[in-house]
Design goal:
The complex is a heterodimer of chains A (about 325) and B (about 240). In chain A, α5 crosses α9 and α8 runs parallel beside α13. With about 325 residues, chain A is an all-alpha fold. Chain B is of the alpha/beta class. Chain B has 8 helices and 9 strands. Helix content of chain B is about 40%, strand content about 25%. The chains are: A mainly alpha (about 325), B alpha/beta (about 240). The interface between A and B is medium-sized, with 23 and 26 residues. Chain B: This is ABC transporter. Chain B: Keywords: ATP-binding, Nucleotide-binding, Transport. Chain B: It comes from Compostibacillus humi.
Chain lengths: ~325, ~240
């Protein structure tokens, strides 16, 4: 049965999304994840943001602290990194204030936890329909599978983002009320990182759900995909990059980074926190991309491509395999 | 009668790997008929239903529905598990939106299957029979020419088995075509216009009860089954004796 009126199509899709949101909101999974997000937001506020304030103030650098003056003769003292280092350090300290050990740790926590949460929740949503007969019944209504996949995707994103919004919103309000402007920016970056993670991994989770037939199989696939993207991928990249010619290494590396949402989002957040210096000499390119907005554009394009691909493949797989 | 064909099945078969679960079936269903597919466990009834509803793809053969309207048939699957956190009203509302069916029809069906008073209770708290009635209401939502029921009386208590038969009679009176599978012989005898007996994936019989009884020289379906079974197991028994 194919609906031709665009308004009716939207109405049906809207109804399906509401149905899926209802199911997700009533499941205990989402409540548990909301509590987890709340804990992460609290950690970020009480541990991450406070460390931003205290870290740079305690740092005292090299010879300057010893009060030693070194005669460099006719050679520019900056050659030895004395004068200029002082200037650069001040600048760098100010810029890198958003990125501390605590924030790196919390960022990793998001980069590890949110993908696995999305992968399990999303794949489970499709597998439950497969095991309970809902998907087979849906097929007999001759409705397009695009609606089914899209409704699952939108509902997953909306419910997980609402859960994130509640958790981070509480502390976001505190940050804005206490008037901590700079901290608000870091908080915003952290929130965007989580939003991007939810969107891209919700789409990937539907692909895992579409190829799995049982809950255990879905869970295994979700964990394999997660561990591949989070842990194994970087080793593969390092191995492959060795075979790339020197001139193409940087481009190759950046391409590989954009192909894995975990890595691309990590690089994007670090750049947004003004800490791209940690990438080494090549950071200049990332810094330039960041300044011109190209990094965000590349990230968005790569994420959209991944979402479209994951949703299209899921639709085709479900149409063929049921 | 030729113009009255609602469903034509030609050489429809299904194989999983090397195992053939349904040997080629040829069957024609006419408008207003109630055709009952019967057979023991693993006979191929559900497989045949899954093939004609489009849930599974046949290995070979074809089928064609000749009906008017956008929705081809109403379908009640076997062992359907609706989301536990939803109420019957919410379940039916989900499927209703695909059919453009009025809210009144949905309410009427909930009353017809005796779930009106439970419409706001979660399906997770329902017994097997109550869930089966939600399933029945879902199948009847579409106002179509053909209804397909897979083991519809499973889990229903005696009262609701009788009510289900009444629903089938009502559908027949309205000129609807009904295809259902069952292994309960008394139900088959009461509601069928035509019986198709499947045995180990092979269609063994296709005709009215009288025709089948005449062929097997007996007067009940249990005996027909026993004869079909003994015909198939005799060689094995002989082998054992030998």
């Amino acid at each position: 049965m194919r609906e031709t009126n665009p308004m009716n199509k939207l109405k049906i899709l809207g109804g399906m999304v509401v149905h899926e949101i209802k199911l997700l909101l009533r499941s205990k999974w989402l409540l548990n994840f909301t509590l987890l997000f709340l804990a992460m937001a609290a950690l970020f506020y009480f541990y991450g943001l406070q460390s931003v304030e205290t870290d740079p103030k305690e740092v005292v650098y090299g010879l300057e602290s010893m009060g030693t003056e070194i005669d460099t003769g006719t050679v520019d003292p900056s050659y030895f990194g004395l004068d200029v280092i002082e200037v650069e350090e001040n600048k760098e300290t100010a810029e890198s204030a958003g990125y501390s050990r605590a924030i790196a740790m919390l960022m990793n926590l998001s980069l590890w936890l949110i993908p696995v949460i999305c992968l399990i929740l999303g794949s489970n949503s499709i597998i439950t329909d497969k095991e309970g007969g809902g998907l087979s019944l849906y097929r007999t209504y001759h409705m397009p599978f695009t609606y089914y996949v899209l409704s699952k995707f939108i509902a997953l994103c909306v419910s997980l983002l609402a859960s994130l919004g509640v958790s981070y919103g509480v502390f976001g309000i505190i940050v804005s009320l206490t008037g901590q402007g700079a901290q608000g920016t870091y908080f915003q970056t952290f929130l965007w990182l989580n939003v991007f993670l939810v969107i891209v991994f919700s789409a990937l989770s539907l692909f895992i759900g579409s190829i799995s037939t049982t809950r255990m199989q879905g869970l295994s696939f979700a964990l394999i995909a997660w561990s591949f993207l989070v842990f194994v991928y970087e080793f593969i990249v390092f191995s492959v990059v060795d075979f790339v010619s020197y001139g193409q290494k940087l481009t190759g590396m950046l391409l590989f980074i954009l192909m894995n949402p975990i890595e691309s989002l990590r690089v994007w957040s670090i750049e947004k926190l003004n800490a791209e210096y940690i990438f080494g000499p090549e950071y200049l390119l990332i810094h330039e991309w960041g300044q011109s907005g190209m990094l965000t554009n590349y990230l968005i394009v790569s994420i959209i491509a991944m979402i479209v691909m994951a949703l299209s493949v899921s639709t085709v797989v479900m149409k063929k395999r049921g | 009668m030729i113009n009255d064909k609602v469903l034509s099945i030609t050489n429809l078969s299904k194989t999983y790997g090397k195992k053939q679960v349904l040997a080629p079936v040829n069957l024609t269903v006419h408008r207003g008929e109630c055709v009952v597919l019967c057979g023991g466990n693993g006979a191929g009834k559900s497989t045949l239903i899954k093939l004609i509803t489009g849930i599974e793809k046949p290995t070979a053969g074809a089928f064609q529905f000749r009906v008017q309207g956008r929705k081809t048939f109403g379908f009640m699957p076997d062992d359907m598990k609706f989301p536990k956190d939803l109420t019957p009203l919410e379940v039916l509302n989900y499927y209703r939106q695909f059919l453009n069916v009025s809210e009144e029809r949905m309410h009427h069906l909930l009353q017809r299957v005796g779930l009106w008073d439970f419409r706001r209770q979660k399906v997770g708290s329902f017994s097997k029979g109550m869930s089966q009635r939600v399933n029945l209401a879902q199948a009847l939502l579409a106002d179509v020419d053909v209804y397909i029921f897979d083991e519809p009386t499973n889990g229903l208590d005696p009262y609701w088995v009788i009510e289900f038969k009444r629903i089938i009679h009502d559908l027949k009176r309205e000129g609807k075509t009904v295809i259902l599978s069952s292994h309960i012989m008394r139900d088959v005898a009461e509601i069928s216009d035509r019986v198709v007996i499947l045995f180990e994936g092979v269609m063994k019989e296709n005709g009215t009860l009288q025709e089948i009884y005449a062929r097997h020289r007996c007067d009940n379906l249990e005996e027909v089954f026993l004869r079909l079974q003994s015909n198939s197991t005799e060689p094995e028994l002989e082998a054992e004796v030998g």
